[in-house]
Amino acid sequence: MARRLAVRPEVFPIRGAFKISRETRTQQPVVLVEIFDGDHVGRGECVPYKRYGESMDGVVQEIAGLGEAIAKGLDRAGLEARLKPGAARNGLDCALWDLEAKRAGKRVWQLLGKPAPKPVVTAFTISLDNPEKMKADAAAAADRPLLKVKLGGEGDDARVRAVRDGAPKSRLIVDPNEAWTIELFARYAPELARLGVEMIEQPLPADRDQALASVPHPVVVCADESCHDRHHLAELKGRYEAINVKLDKAGGLTEAMALADAARAAGFEVMVGCMLATSLAMAPAVLVAQTARWADLDGPLLLAKDREPGLQFEGSKILPPAPELWG
């Protein structure tokens, strides 16, 4: 029986609102990819991201356009040659991994030659708001070991102080989402170091981040929008000490694993992040997070509704995915 590809957009409600420097959302669209092969179905999920020139319709069409190739046996290596890194390739790559595991009666980590994954502690996101609201949100999450604080520009020092007051024992990482200038970085970074912030994620716009090489880094600086796959690593030296590996940027688990390995070999710390999405999107990333310094895979915790079955969380600890979910 020939394989059959199915792809469709879905929307999941967000718990409250998700606010970053670029936008505010109350619901999250995702793309579900399924590859049917006899009694087996491989699934993947991806999130088109406007910042990277992607749209829901465009990604759905890009995936659907490979229906005939999938039916004829397109594999992960062929997929890499056909599609650029991004959401469409991620959805298909993860679905192919899931299908391969189900057909083999094994788990994906066994196919990768890796040990069984262990639980991973994820960051929990504090959305961008005024300091008072962020302090209250941090206080409500003060029992979580790692908080990721969304920032937006002027007044960010007050926001981080407020979060620190609300959650004095939590580890902190911050993410301005490209909203700073180099002047803001130079002003805020020493204060954030004093407040115990471990990492600043993508403070400057990706097309202006060369300025980071000209100033001290009292806090580790992590590339997000500036690093999609292995081809970006060489130009990041001197600007960043860490990179954020996201499957939707890298174009799937295959490249994400290779990128993480290459980054460590080049001397970078590794963070594993996500777009806001369901447990199906997080499950492959849990495998990449096994050797990462930071994991930011709290997408399902920020949704009002997740897939069933979803990932199991014990507080901020993510348990490895069950085979009924993925892999």
Low-pLDDT stretches are none
Sheet having the most strands:
8 strands, parallel
The assigned structural class equals alpha/beta
| Number of separate domains | 2
The helicity comes to 25-40%
Rg value:
19 Å
- Enumerate the strands of the largest sheet in spatial order, edge to edge or round the barrel: 5-6-7-8-9-10-11-12
CATH C-level name of the largest domain: Alpha Beta
Proportion of strand residues: 15-25%
Sketch the topology as an H/E string, one letter per element.
EEEHHHHHEEHEHEHEEEHHEHEEE
Distance between the termini: 22 Å
- For CATH, the homologous superfamily of the largest domain is named as Enolase-like C-terminal domain
How much is the average pLDDT?
96
Q: What's the β-strand tally?
A: 14
Q: What is the name of the CATH architecture of the largest domain? A: Alpha-Beta Barrel
Molecular shape: globular
CATH topology-level name of the largest domain: TIM Barrel
The number of helical runs is: 11
